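Please decode residue identities from the backbone states below.
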């Protein structure tokens, strides 16, 4: 699920998805997001295991991603976009 919080910040909730579904959802979002969005919170959850968290933090690559920030909430990773 994608939700725009402001015109510069969005949220993508991928919990409950498989690793491949989550990667596809995030990649499709990044491919179509406009240039005004600078920050994307990826909600991957944490209590059900580390597969989604590790995919987002270590395995996810996209040309729009400038950096990744580990949130104080262990179920969220923040993507800073170019």
């Amino acid at each position: 699920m994608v939700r725009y919080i402001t015109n510069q910040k969005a949220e993508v909730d991928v919990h409950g998805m498989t690793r491949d579904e989550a990667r596809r959802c995030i990649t499709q979002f990044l491919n179509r997001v406009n240039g005004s969005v600078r920050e994307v919170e990826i909600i991957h959850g944490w209590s059900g295991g580390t597969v989604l968290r590790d995919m987002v933090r270590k395995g996810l690559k996209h040309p729009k991603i400038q950096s990744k920030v580990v949130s104080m909430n262990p179920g969220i990773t923040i993507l800073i976009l170019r």
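Observation: The first strand starts at residue 2 and ends at 4.
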